[in-house]
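Bumping my old thread because nobody answered last time. Still need a sequence for this structure:
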């Protein structure tokens, strides 16, 4: 490929604008098309992020853009339930594809797409920007290379706050058809994806969900679940958008020879009995026990948590920029991206299993959900909790 990778951005809303910024800041990419049925959104995005050369154009549909413009990479930033129809159009046109998380809202649709995407010869990947945080990379490496011994358990919580205007601000938000769920599918999915990356295949879940602090949405704003992994490890996960004023996304992972804590993407604690510093006292059981916390944790694993970046309030795109590095590498070298469609499918199946469990009130096998069982279950996860 000569010249920059020519990008069509589909969906010019909140996250589309972040992608426009990440693309603008990345020398390997050039924005050539902004696609949105609402002309004002594509126009506003191009007004802020258009390079002078090549000059990008606005389109109201993806087929229009694919027909009229030379595009190497289609980036899909539309409501979650629309992702795979658009991704299939891009695949059919022979482009590389980046899909915002989640892969889609339907496991059946996602599994069929995963089979087709495997044979395109193009890079097809899904955004999971927290897999590229240095803290996540260090913890994944420690778990996978045995530094923590046998992984035994994890405690994860996404305790955020979204006020009612967030759900009222887009008619797709909080709907099963287009959002695919609430606090877990939209907000907690990053953390559940990290759990899969760290601990491997989830096999069984038992969940409960409620709508506690919002109105006029079909989905949960609070869900708690246990997850059992193929390795035998057990995790608990809470995802909520009802934790005023909004606390952190926190993931604590434990093994027989080490543990780590990531809080809001930063490595807060790290201890491995196998590391050079294992004689340091106080590591067991306490983040404040004088072991390997804060800056020491960074030193232990050889990186520094990311400070406020050179891009100021644009720092929210730091994770996306890191993933764009990976996408550029995969496209230019013709190799697998860091996040595969199968990774995202597993992550989606975990989320759906949690919803099925909350809806039917039973322990649910993730493998059966992946195989299409329960695809017709009406996900009334709030059954019996309304009005309380
Ligand atoms: N990775 C992350 O951290 C992150 C953060 C926020 C949102 N997201 C994901 O990004 C997606 C979009 O979320 P958002 O908050 O930007 O929503 P949004 O409502 O702000 O923007 C969606 C945009 O898509 C446009 N659109 C709808 N259908 C379209 C179509 N067929 N073709 C082209 N454009 C179309 C809408 O007009 C709108 O401008 C969701 O799947 C969400 O889960 C990911």
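Sorry it took so long. Here it is:
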């Amino acid at each position: 490929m000569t010249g920059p990778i020519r990008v069509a951005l589909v969906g010019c809303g909140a996250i589309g604008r972040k992608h426009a910024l990440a693309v603008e800041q990345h020398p390997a990419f050039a924005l050539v098309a902004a696609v949105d049925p609402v002309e004002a959104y594509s126009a506003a995005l191009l007004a802020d992020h258009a390079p002078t050369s090549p000059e990008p154009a606005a389109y109201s549909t993806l087929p229009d853009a694919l027909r009229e413009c030379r595009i190497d990479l289609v980036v899909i930033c539309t409501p979650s339930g629309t992702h795979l129809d658009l991704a299939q159009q891009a695949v059919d046109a022979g482009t590389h594809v980046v899909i915002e998380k989640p892969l889609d809202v339907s496991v059946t649709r996602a599994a069929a797409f995963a089979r087709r995407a495997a044979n395109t010869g193009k890079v097809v990947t899904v955004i999971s920007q927290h897999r590229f945080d240095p803290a996540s990379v260090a913890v994944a490496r420690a778990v996978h290379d045995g530094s923590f011994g046998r992984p035994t358990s994890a405690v994860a919580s996404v305790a955020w706050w979204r006020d009612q205007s967030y759900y009222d601000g887009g008619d797709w938000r909080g709907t099963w058809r287009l959002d695919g769920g609430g606090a877990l599918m939209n907000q907690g999915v990053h953390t559940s994806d990290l759990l899969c990356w760290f601990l491997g295949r989830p096999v069984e879940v038992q969940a409960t969900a409620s709508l506690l602090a919002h109105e006029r949405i079909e989905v949960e704003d609070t869900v708690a679940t246990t997850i059992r992994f193929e390795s035998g490890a057990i995790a608990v996960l809470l995802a909520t958008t009802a934790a005023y004023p909004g606390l952190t996304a926190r993931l604590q992972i434990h093994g027989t020879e080490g543990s780590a804590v990531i809080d809001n993407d930063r490595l807060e604690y790290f201890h491995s009995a196998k590391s050079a510093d294992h004689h340091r006292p106080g590591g067991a059981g306490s983040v404040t026990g004088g072991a390997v916390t804060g800056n020491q944790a960074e030193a232990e694993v050889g990186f520094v948590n990311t400070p406020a970046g050179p891009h100021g309030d644009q720092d929210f795109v730091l994770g996306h920029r890191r993933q764009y590095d990976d996408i550029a590498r995969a496209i230019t070298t013709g190799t697998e991206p860091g996040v595969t469609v199968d990774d995202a499918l597993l992550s989606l199946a975990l989320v759906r299993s949690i919803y099925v469990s909350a809806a039917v009130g039973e322990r649910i096998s993730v493998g059966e959900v992946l195989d299409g069982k329960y695809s017709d279950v009406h996900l009334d996860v709030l059954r019996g909790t309304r009005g309380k």
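The chain has a mean pLDDT of 90. Let me know if any region looks off to you.
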